[in-house]
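Hi U.,

Before I forget, here's the chain from the pilot set. I'm dumping it here mostly so it's searchable later in email.
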Amino acid sequence: MMKLLKQFVVVITLLSGAVFVQAEEADVCEPFMDGKVDETLLADMLSAAEDGHLYRIEQTSSKVGFCVNSKLSRIEGNFKDFKGGISLNPGQDTNGQTMVLIKTGSLETGTGLVDSVIKGENFFDVEHHPEVLFVSDGFKWTGPETAVLTGKLTLRGITKPVIFNVRLTALDDEPIDQAERILVKATTSINRADFGMEALSSLVEGNVQLCMSVEALKYQS
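Structure:
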């Protein structure tokens, strides 16, 4: 009887662990559900988790933001609420899937007045467009630690193609294709007018630099 009880406890423990892992994997994809992203891309992300090359962006140790010059000063904004995942197998030349969802209401520039203007209807229009979405559609290694990431950026309900220049490094002593934690730095430039943000053109430049410096932790299948 005691032997059967022990076996029962072991089975329950294994099942609980499996449910926990599945819940963690699904948690990466949860922000992108409800039609935000094609279901086949979500399936690819879950498959990457099972294969051991899915990385989850760690919000507390990452930065996602933008920089733009104005006649008064250089404006730098950072978003405090964002989620995302990166599926990556550095052993392959062309591969990978990246998804990032940003809450526009979490923007901080360090100045309340600037925050209010940028969150207003002439710029991010937080009330009507609470999210910014990036979904990649291509990845190409250009060197041992550099790559080009292409995809679609949706901002203010407008979707445009963008190209990020990316640098990836391991945050431990292992090779990048075996690292448990990686640092991903990505930059690109957009024309804000392309996304319906044409206000104050005489004061603020049209070219905006988007930048991410994110730490990502590998899932264990």
